[in-house]
Specification:
The complex is a heterodimer.
Chain A: H1 6-37, E1 41-42, E2 48-49, H2 55-62, H3 73-103, H4 108-123, H5 126-137, H6 143-149, H7 152-158, H8 161-167, H9 182-206, H10 210-218, H11 223-251, H12 255-260, H13 268-276, H14 283-313
Antiparallel strand pairs in A: 1-2
Chain B: H1 2-27, H2 45-53, H3 55-89, H4 92-106, H5 109-123, H6 129-139, H7 142-153, H8 157-165, H9 170-199, H10 202-208, H11 215-221, H12 229-252, H13 255-258
Classes of the chains: A mainly alpha, B mainly alpha.
Subcellular location (chain A): Cell membrane
Membrane topology (chain A): Multi-pass membrane protein
InterPro entries (chain A): MetI-like, MetI-like_sf
């Protein structure tokens, strides 16, 4: 085959430019639209029109009737989005880290089997995972049933444990009750990202040289000292990085919240859906909420990066 | 002692991941309409319902297949030129394009979903199947982009130099050196995108706009009446597809390398 002729080349180049343009339009324009529409104006009883007003943001932060009255409803939704996502991300990384450490000590074959296992559970749809936990926590067939049958409920009643659980919203006068509750929400969210945590931590931890750790051990350092002075400095960046990525991922969780969280403790993703496609139908306001969600994600990523560079800058 | 503790911890972790999945799968055997665990009055009738009898499930499974296969194929075809340009030129522009193309995957999907509602709404394509397919193509473009980039980086440039000195054109070198080595990475990218598209919920929930439904969307829409054992059959089907796909990738590709682990010293 000889070098291609000039017209052929320019046709190829043209196709390349079109290709890149199409990809960029699809990947970027939707985000730009969300941003632009968040400044739009909602027409009562109709759709919305373009505009440049901050009404939607004002409604988000202080409510529509400001300054007569202040409503922090949407800030509360934002708070729950952040709270659930942060707790679940930290729990997942904290428990996945020792697991990955042990996993990378296994044979190559064992590691591959574990990876296949986690990739399967990782890709398992949120819808199915919620289904599983819903069965496990349902009053008629799940854990509450187990509590009842094994006599654990009676035992809890006798020593006042049930009253304590009722205070936490995890029981009725008759038995334990797990949904809706923050406990069920955070448990399911942690479960949702646990395999992600494993997959994210696997590369950095598999690169740690075991010889360094063993050298420290033979030189007389206790296991605790080894973890604190040798292992932690090596994995701090990936650990914090994993928490941040999982946090951003969990900010958009929808099904878990819709099924397990009490309506008074719903998150922004629920109210975004309600505004854009659901019952309230206010696209500009939904967009404004989505923008706030994105900015929150960005802010957390920036703060995290600062934290990391400050820590490593000292060396 | 330490070893035993380690084993116990790993076993516990495996159990924690498996248990809810197992519960869903076993719930498919329930004879009644309610999700009991352990299943009551076990039967396989739900499988027939899901695959053959109940039209909403048969149709949504078909839709899931169409969306997943077409979007994964399109994602691989779209990613190839971008990954190739990134590798060949490594210019700032190609890096920017690759970064922007991965953005939908990296940001909370609900925001991308909202954006796509507006985007397709403008084009009058909201609720059309093809717009749903394109949405998944872009959402999962980052996956083949990553596997292809990993693959291209592992190609020995000396081979290409040798081919060039012996008079092979770029096209020939591409066909005889690059393409054969890239097959496992292309396939992995395709299958990663395929499996994720099957299981994706929120974006397709937004862009389908009740025009059609995939299995995940159909399950969520039927949630009002509670989960039913027939849905659990869907869960088993999807799990089986994931297991098959990832076992194949692990068998024919290098899974630790694809996930970014250092495999140079342990093999």
């Amino acid at each position: 085959m000889t070098a291609s002729t000039l017209p052929q080349r320019s046709v190829l180049r043209g196709i390349g430019v079109l290709h890149v343009a199409a990809v960029l339009v699809l990947a970027v324009v939707p985000f730009l639209l969300v941003f632009a529409i968040s400044f739009g104006h909602k027409v009562e009883g109709a759709a919305w029109v373009w505009g440049f007003e901050l009404t939607n943001y004002r409604r988000f932060f202080v409510g529509t009737d400001y300054p007569d009255s202040v409503s922090l409803l949407y800030l509360k939704y934002l708070w729950y989005s952040v709270w659930y996502a942060l707790v679940a991300a930290i729990l997942a990384v904290a428990t996945a880290f020792p697991f990955v450490w042990l996993m990378t000590r296994g044979s190559r074959r064992a590691q591959t089997v574990w990876l296949v296992f986690f990739l399967c559970s990782l890709t398992f749809s949120e819808v199915f995972i919620v289904m599983g936990w819903d069965i496990l926590m349902s009053n008629r067939s799940g854990l509450p049933m187990v509590f009842q049958e094994t006599g654990l409920t009676d035992w809890l009643k006798e020593n006042g444990g049930l009253d304590l659980l009722r205070e936490w919203g995890l029981a009725t006068p008759r038995n334990v009750r797990f949904k809706p509750s923050e406990f069920a929400t955070i448990l399911t969210l942690t479960y949702l990202v646990w395999p992600y945590a494993v997959i994210l931590l696997y590369p950095p931890i598999s690169k740690i040289e075991r010889e360094v750790v063993e050298a420290a051990r033979t030189m007389g350092a206790s296991p605790f000292t080894v973890v604190r002075t040798v292992v932690m400095p090596m994995v701090r960046t990936p650990l914090v990085g994993a928490v941040l990525l999982l946090f951003v991922f969990l900010l958009g969780a929808y099904v878990t919240i819709a099924v397990f969280a009490d309506p008074s403790k719903h998150t922004l993703s629920i109210s975004v859906y309600e505004a854009v496609r659901g019952s309230t139908l206010n696209a500009p306001f939904g967009s404004a909420q989505a923008v706030v969600l994105l900015l929150t994600a960005a802010a957390v990523l920036v703060i995290g990066q600062r934290f990391l560079s400050a820590k490593t800058g000292g060396h | 002692m330490g070893k035993l503790l380690a084993r116990a911890f790993m076993g516990f972790a495996a159990l924690w991941i498996i248990f809810p999945i197992l519960v869903v799968c076993l719930a498919a055997l329930n004879g009644g309409r309610t999700m009991f665990f352990p299943p009551e009055d076990p039967t396989l009738a739900r499988f027939a319902e899901f695959f053959l009898i109940e039209e909403i499930w048969v149709r949504s499974l078909q839709t899931s297949f169409v969306v997943a296969f077409s979007s994964a194929a399109l994602a691989v075809l779209t990613a190839w030129p971008i990954a190739y340009a990134l590798w060949r030129r490594n210019s700032r522009a190609s890096k920017l394009v690759a970064g922007l193309a991965s953005m939908p995957f990296a940001l909370p999907p609900i925001v991308f979903g909202v954006g796509l509602v507006f985007f397709w709404g403008y084009l009058g394509a909201l609720g059309d199947l093809w717009s749903g397919i394109l949405s998944h193509t872009i959402l999962f473009l980052a996956l083949p982009l990553t596997t292809l980039s990993i693959g291209l980086q592992s190609i020995d440039r000396a081979h290409l130099d040798a081919a060039a000195t012996m008079g092979a054109s770029e096209t020939t070198a591409f066909r005889t050196i690059i393409l054969p080595q890239m097959m496992p990475f292309t396939a992995s990218g395709f299958f990663f995108a395929l499996v994720l598209s099957f299981n994706e919920f929120i974006v397709i929930f937004f862009v389908s706009a009740s025009g059609y439904s995939t299995v995940t969307v159909q399950i969520f829409n039927s949630l009002r009446n509670g989960f039913t054992p027939t849905m659990a059959v869907g869960a088993i089907t999807f799990l089986a597809i994931s297991a098959l796909v990832f076992s194949l990738i692990a068998r024919f590709g290098n899974l630790p390398q694809l996930l970014g682990a250092d495999t140079s010293k342990s093999s």
